[in-house]
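Progress against Task 2.4 (sequence-to-structure conversion) is shown through the following example record, which the project officer requested during the mid-term review.
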Amino acid sequence: MLTKNLSIKTKKKKTGAELILANKELVFQNEEKEKRAAELILANKELVFQNEEKGKRAAELIIADKELVYQNEEKEKRAAELIIADKNYLSKRRKRKTRSRVNNC
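Structure tokens generated for the chain above:
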């Protein structure tokens, strides 16, 4: 009976020691999970910030694109005006040459 009691006590001690080790392992794992959760929170905040910055940059690019479209339209109008002015100039120049030939004859 004494041997049986010692055996039970030994098993209980062994089981107790195993439970203490398992508990320490769980504490360690929980600490690691908390660290990882904190890292993920920081990473998420960084991603939110980056997305906000991308949104701002996209808005800036949209405005810049609209400005470029406007400028191109103005350039096209000016080019059309210059073509008309050039045609008028050439037409007047031809008329002068024709008059000067007629006058010289």
